[in-house]
Specification:
Helix content is 41%, strand content 8%. By secondary structure, it is mainly α. The chain has a domain of 100 residues. Strands 1-2 form a two-stranded antiparallel ribbon. α1 crosses α3.
């Protein structure tokens, strides 16, 4: 059973339930899996790609978040593909977005830990150049259904 207080999410497909959690180790696995000698890929890059509907990024993010509880069933990112086919990318993108949000400290958490509260309005990111983006060679990052909303990772 997923525990939202610990940043866990839940994927339900038919009669099966999977617990996803975005730990530091999951983020490191994700970044290692997608980075190359020529280009380092960060978790933020992957989130951006998921919001642009990259199936490669979603599959890798979901795989990394499944490793804590389901490593034997999903030893590779490719093993997550059939789960995505059955559950649907939009549903899973929503689950990983919620899991990501629940794994991040709130402003109250930061203040309680003795740190400063985050700025209320962070500066906007510079726009991406046209035709760029995606994760890995030959990726296609705009496979979403036209008109359906992109997952929100907060911010």
């Amino acid at each position: 059973m997923a525990n939202r207080e610990r940043g866990e999410g839940r994927v339900v497909v038919g009669d099966r339930e999977y617990t996803v959690v975005c730990t530091t180790n999951a983020q490191c696995e994700l970044e290692t899996h997608l980075s190359t000698a020529a280009r380092e890929v960060t978790t933020g890059d992957v989130i951006d790609a998921i919001q642009r509907r990259s199936k490669t990024a979603l599959r890798a993010f979901l795989w990394a978040c499944l490793l804590t509880h389901h490593r034997a069933e999903f030893p590779t990112a490719e093993a997550v593909g059939p789960l995505m086919d059955e559950a649907g990318a939009d549903y899973l993108a929503g689950v990983v977005a919620e899991t990501w949000k629940s794994s991040q400290p709130t402003a109250e958490d930061l203040v309680a830990a003795g740190g400063p509260a985050p700025a209320p309005n962070p500066p906007p990111r510079p726009p991406r150049r046209k035709g760029g983006g995606g994760i890995g060679p030959g990726s296609i990052d705009r496979q979403g259904v036209p008109g359906s909303p992109a997952p929100s990772f907060g911010g």
